[in-house]
Amino acid sequence: MTKAVTDPSSADTSNSPADAKAAMDDLRQGIEQALRDATQFDSGCPDELGSAIRYALLAPGKRLRPALVLMAAEACGGSIDDAMPGAVAVEMIHAYSLIHDDLPAMDDDDLRRGRPTVHIAFDESTAILAGDALQPQAFLHLSENVSDPVRAIEAVRVLAKAAGAERLVGGQADDLAAESRDHSRNGEPIEGDDRSLQQLESIHRRKTGALFAASLELGAVLSGASEQARNAVVDYANDLGLAFQVVDDLLDYEADESRLGKRAGKDAERGKLTYPGLLGIEAAREKARELIESAQSHVKLFGDAAWRLNTLANFVLQRTH
């Protein structure tokens, strides 16, 4: 069985994008190969549909969620091989959610990761079907590739709950419902808008945070971790996922579109709830810093084995795209 390389010297000192790249490079190669292997369909899958699925799933990306599965497994003393089915499954769910979120009836995006979105590159019906196919494919992959039946059932439960009506889909529904309301004035905070802030946090703890939490919990489940370890990685994930969204909102206000890989300023134009819109830019930055510190505090119990998780947390805080 393959174990990832643990580098204790990197713990608590990794602060640059280069450090984050080094922490993920030996994981990413295996993830990419596993994703390619998982999209080799037989003749029952029409060519156009298979192409659209691969276009979405294999698009250039950071692979944060599948990497989190493997990082959690490593921190909990498990193997990369045992955790890889969870990494593939969570990326399938993530890819499906991006396909559907980008549709004209949803967030109406024409650019994703620097490339045309699936409904632009193919067509709207093919994009919908590609997303539809990726959902069950994720659970099929878990059921066929996790050898321990108890862990397989629990992994399916964790991912299904994260992707369902109360979390990922529910968060997206609330996000759409919150559009076209005057929640911000050019990035300046609005006094007395605590209810909107609570609503925004609720949206993103489900829409973005749900898959972050599921990713880390899958790594713990598939490595047979203790309840204490499982709770620690979930707490880390909850803070990391929210920090990721705060930074994402800041990038939508400030980043150059060519670096961002998607249309900048779109959220503000659509009147969506955002952290800079509700808190102001500086307070949003401070919130992100506090969340990252909290995330890192949760994984101290793993010691040096959590070096990748600490590195990734620092990277999320310093993202530029």
UniProtKB/TrEMBL annotation:
<keyword id="KW-0414">Isoprene biosynthesis</keyword>
<feature type="compositionally biased region" description="Basic and acidic residues">
    <location>
        <begin position="178"/>
        <end position="195"/>
    </location>
</feature>
<feature type="region of interest" description="Disordered">
    <location>
        <begin position="1"/>
        <end position="22"/>
    </location>
</feature>
<keyword id="KW-0479">Metal-binding</keyword>
<feature type="region of interest" description="Disordered">
    <location>
        <begin position="173"/>
        <end position="195"/>
    </location>
</feature>
<dbReference type="InterPro" id="IPR000092">
    <property type="entry name" value="Polyprenyl_synt"/>
</dbReference>
<keyword id="KW-0460">Magnesium</keyword>
<dbReference type="GO" id="GO:0016114">
    <property type="term" value="P:terpenoid biosynthetic process"/>
</dbReference>
<protein>
    <submittedName>
        <fullName>Farnesyl diphosphate synthase</fullName>
        <ecNumber>2.5.1.10</ecNumber>
    </submittedName>
</protein>
<dbReference type="Pfam" id="PF00348">
    <property type="entry name" value="polyprenyl_synt"/>
</dbReference>
<dbReference type="GO" id="GO:0005737">
    <property type="term" value="C:cytoplasm"/>
</dbReference>
<feature type="compositionally biased region" description="Polar residues">
    <location>
        <begin position="7"/>
        <end position="17"/>
    </location>
</feature>
<dbReference type="InterPro" id="IPR053378">
    <property type="entry name" value="Prenyl_diphosphate_synthase"/>
</dbReference>
<keyword id="KW-0808">Transferase</keyword>
<dbReference type="GO" id="GO:0004337">
    <property type="term" value="F:(2E,6E)-farnesyl diphosphate synthase activity"/>
</dbReference>
<comment type="similarity">
    <text>Belongs to the FPP/GGPP synthase family.</text>
</comment>
<dbReference type="GO" id="GO:0046872">
    <property type="term" value="F:metal ion binding"/>
</dbReference>
<dbReference type="InterPro" id="IPR033749">
    <property type="entry name" value="Polyprenyl_synt_CS"/>
</dbReference>
<dbReference type="InterPro" id="IPR008949">
    <property type="entry name" value="Isoprenoid_synthase_dom_sf"/>
</dbReference>
